[in-house]
Specification:
The protein is mainly α. Helix 1 crosses helix 15. The two termini are 14 Å apart. Helices cover 76% and strands 1% of the residues. The protein has 21 helices and two strands. A two-stranded parallel sheet has the order 1-2.
């Protein structure tokens, strides 16, 4: 007998879900699925975290210039470039995941992420090969961006389709727990290297270490993902087709789901603008704009992420009890009214004030990290879930999330207004609030197009 006992009807209708026999999931198999998906997310954000926290050093290695702001802009430009190809990755991997299966595509994205990250650690510096160095860095970032186009949507879909309806919020929250773990791993390693290595050693060879770690991490993650079975929801779709899933036109994934796509993009906008602002941009903001001690700034961010990790599973369970909409709405309202006070605290400069301001933003961000992994997959039916979510998620991340550090740095440079991060988060919260207003509650309910899911 397989690890999961799946009772799936031959015809699953979103109109008559209550009449469909339930899908019975094995808790042990669900835990394995959550671990495999979360580890992949942790690896992705380990890289992004390291890239953000060591951005000043990377600027010196790949973009020599007498102007520190120009170096930082160039580094974040390469950071943002990866997000430009994410929609392309989503358009390739998303529909593929709806056709051949979630598990197979997630294994491919894991390999590509590991290769792209590992390659960065091998690139010679600008001083060694000249302009070839930033070109190779950009190429590696594009490989990473293309692969991550299928990562988050696939991982969240994978967990959502395995999870029982009544525990989808709690189990989904572990995906972002992996994100925070990756950030903490990256931040902790950068902090340790900054403290132990001289500036010369960090610039000459120390910066390579975090990127080279991606190789072993990728092998472990691939092993875990290859051991998983396909999700019950996708297996039921294949059973209906009596073979492999028929190809779904890209037009159907977009035009046929345009309302859900708009909601998805609005939710992802507020989620990722605030996420990248706090976890990717703020370390550089503290160092380059406020002249804060680099090591202390990283330690503050590390502590905030540890606090978020502690709260994350409890917040995920809360979304199962009170719903996704109230939790996401609370985050939007919080960022609208508390962004300015929090940034004023951070700008005050003392360790206590910076810690309090960052902690306030971190706890508000948990409202999104805990609810989104369960809320976003529930916007789309099983037949197009991976593809439509990949497209909506990555278009929004590319336009608004990944560009946040670059745009905010440029806005501060153009206006001289150091409060731009707060204004940017407030604008994002208004858009996210509008999306929450129009979205339907999904807590405790079957995914659209799938049978009810219960735990054995």
């Amino acid at each position: 007998m397989s690890a999961a006992t799946v009772t799936a009807p031959r015809s699953v209708s979103s109109v008559s879900l209550t009449k469909s026999p339930p899908t019975v999931t094995d808790p042990a198999l669900v835990r394995r699925a959550v671990k495999a998906a979360a580890l992949g997310n942790a690896m992705e954000w380990f890289d992004f975290g390291v890239y953000s926290y060591i951005a000043v050093t990377l600027g010196k290695v790949f973009f020599p210039s007498g102007n520190p702001t120009a170096q930082l802009l160039s580094t974040f430009g390469a950071f943002a470039a990866a997000f430009l190809v994410r929609p392309l990755g989503g358009m390739v991997f998303g529909p593929l995941g709806d056709r051949i299966g979630r598990q197979k595509v997630l294994a491919v994205t894991m390999i590509m992420m590991a290769v792209g990250t590992f390659a960065i650690g091998l690139i010679p510096s600008y001083a060694t090969i000249g302009v070839g160095a930033p070109i190779l860095l950009l190429a590696a970032r594009l490989v990473q961006g293309f692969s991550t186009g299928g990562e988050y949507a696939g991982a969240s879909t994978f967990i959502a389709e395995y999870a029982p309806d009544k525990r989808r919020g709690f189990l989904g929250s572990w995906l972002e727990f992996g994100t925070l773990a990756g950030y903490i791993g990256g931040a902790g390693l950068v902090t340790l290297m900054t403290a132990l290595l001289s500036s010369h050693d960090l610039t000459s060879w120390g910066w390579r270490i975090p990127f080279l770690i991606a190789g072993p991490m990728g092998i472990i993650g691939l092993y875990l993902r290859m051991r998983l079975e396909e999700t019950p929801a996708f297996a039921a779709e294949v059973e209906k087709a009596e073979s492999c899933r028929p190809k779904v036109p890209l037009r159907e994934m977009v035009a046929g789901q345009w309302k859900a796509l708009l909601l998805c993009m609005g939710l992802v906008l507020v989620f990722n603008v605030t996420d990248y602002m706090l976890l990717s941009y703020m370390p550089s903001y503290l160092t380059s704009e406020l002249k804060y001690d680099e090591t202390h700034g990283l330690l503050v961010v590390l502590a905030v992420m540890a606090l978020m990790m502690i709260v994350q599973p409890f917040a995920g369970a809360l979304t199962d009890r009170v719903g996704r909409r109230p939790v996401i709405a609370a985050g939007c309202v919080g960022f609208l009214f508390l962004s300015i006070p929090a940034l004023l605290l951070i700008r005050q400069g003392s360790l206590l004030a910076v810690g309090l301001g960052m902690a306030a933003l971190g706890l508000l961000l948990v409202c999104f990290t805990a609810a989104m992994p369960a809320a976003l997959p529930a916007l789309f039916p099983t037949r197009v879930r991976y593809g439509s979510l990949s497209i909506g998620f990555n278009v929004s991340v590319s336009l608004f999330g990944g560009t946040t550090p670059l745009v905010v740095t440029a806005l501060i440079g153009a206006t001289g207004n150091m409060m731009m991060p707060a204004y940017y988060m407030m604008a994002a919260s208004l858009i996210g609030g509008a999306a929450v207003w129009f979205m339907a509650e999904s807590a405790g309910r079957p995914l659209p197009g799938s049978a009810p899911a219960v735990e054995s």
